[in-house]
Amino acid sequence: MNKPTACKVAHLRYSExxxxxxxxxxxxxxxxxxxxxxxxxxSVRQITDTVxxxxxxxxNKIIKLLxxxxxxxxxxxxxxxxxxxxxxxxxxxxxCKDIFxxxxxYFNIMNNRFLVIVNAPLIISLTLPKVIYIHTxxxxxxxxxxxxxxxxxxxxxxxxxxxxxxxxxSNFLYTARKEDSDYYFKVTYTPSNxxxxxxxxxxxxxxxxxxxxxPLSVEYISARHQFTKEKLSNNEFRVxxxxxxxxxxxxxxxxxxxxCKYLSSQxxxxxxxxxxxxxxxxxxxxxxIEYSSFHEFYKGxxxxxxxxxxxxxxxxxxxxxxxxxFDRSRFQRIEVKHIVLxxxxxxxxxxxxxxxxxxxxxxxxxxxxxxxxxxxLAALQCKNTKTVxxxxxxxxxxxxxxxxxxxxxxxxxxxxxxxxxxxxxxxCNGSKIAVIFCGDFNSLxxxxxxxxxxxxxSKCNKELEQIGCNTNFLKKNLIYGSAYETPPFTNYTDNFxxxxxxxxxxxxxMELTKIVPLPTEDEMSVNVALPNQYFPSDHVALIADFKxx
Length: 549
Known about the structure:
Layout: E1 8-15, E2 20-31, E3 35-46, H1 51-68, E4 81-85, E5 88-89, E6 105-109, E7 112-118, E8 122-127, E9 137-138, E10 141-145, E11 153-159, E12 166-169, E13 174-175, E14 184-190, E15 202-205, H2 219-225, E16 236-243, H3 260-263, H4 265-278, E17 283-290, H5 291-304, E18 307-313, E19 320-327, E20 331-340, H6 341-347, H7 352-358, H8 362-369, E21 374-382, E22 388-395, H9 403-427, E23 433-440, H10 448-453, H11 461-467, E24 480-482, E25 491-492, E26 497-498, E27 501-506, E28 510-515, H12 521-524, E29 542-548
Parallel strand pairs: 1-7, 16-17, 22-23
Antiparallel strand pairs: 1-2, 2-3, 4-5, 4-6, 6-7, 8-10, 9-13, 11-12, 11-14, 14-15, 16-29, 17-19, 18-19, 20-21, 21-22, 23-27, 24-27, 25-26, 28-29
Helix pairs in contact: 4-5, 6-9, 9-11
């Protein structure tokens, strides 16, 4: 077959997430009376629909467009539209999913002929941090489809006037240097998919020039450090639990009251690291830590300060998740395990009774199974006492109306903790085991989750009724106390203030000896709410000291 003369391109893409396909092309129509129409058309159908449905939907969109432009519809309503392969129209009844295996397809409409490119990379958005500081790593933020980063190319340039640009790097990450101060950055990104098919080139210019990072405002954090000046020893240990606010959640406009220079990841990373190290902790449990921030910043700093750090993506797929660090001079790692709670319902025999209950409620079952909520379990042996400390860390589902889902998640988590403890006992030849359970439970003190954890199950009736079960559902072996009990705030923003974070501890195995006082409301509201220049997250850190019994 001779090579077609068509130079126009149409893109056909398949999204597994939405189970849809979309056809995109730029339609150009010239009319003596109405002039030239040049519009991008996007036609979306379910992947199980037919080619006829896709073409009919595309045609209807164009007719609607012409109507909106007040063109003569009768002149255009009978135009031809087809998908062809080897000059033969693809049959109407062919499923959209099946055409993704074809090569050399053409899309024909009016007098336009397009070569169809399947699953070409598409840059949905390309942004740079609002504030860029010297001596910091700058990471472009990309949302894309069918992108293969190693095959794609990037170019960094800088300019003082946004007119004359000078090349600086072709690496994906760029560390801003002192000589970049007062320059704008421009990033030019050429996307490629895994087959080497290129997408449209995208450019972005920084909002402002590169500048010097402001001094850390540590007044309020330093006040908390007064309670943790000394490291603990022997049978005492200190635990920190902290939702440090994922960078991705600072970009959605939720924290408009915060000056962008204090909301920047580089400032918040440094402020949170200053805070964490000042607590002289033995064990740190983090929630909402991102993959990039862990590997680019936290991992190296904490390792050099005597910690053994680990990170696990939420659900094994999301960009943010759980962080766990322990002082390797005090503890020896026995085992660390990452669990996706929803998967345990079918994989863990200990959870079969939970699944038998929730599967009677279709909405609840689907709500639990689709969550990516993770549980991190670590078994650490104290080098002095030989006691094994089992540390659990989680971040339960966030939705305010999902108390029943969170309670199910808490029950699954405790089943997993119990099984993990039993497994560790068999490894450690009967060593004494003590349990700490940290996290952002997204649950207020009056919730079923909190009252289940502290064994006050008489206050769980609302959630039990939603689940459709009795109190037998909430049986557990461990008796927990709450280190901070129920403070008024652990999360403090302009539109929500409440207690969501807890450190639960096994009361029969350890004694709570001290907690670091939380900041006052006056301190947290000094600049409307959290985060701000004094506090790097919208949550506050919980710090508790314990003595093993």
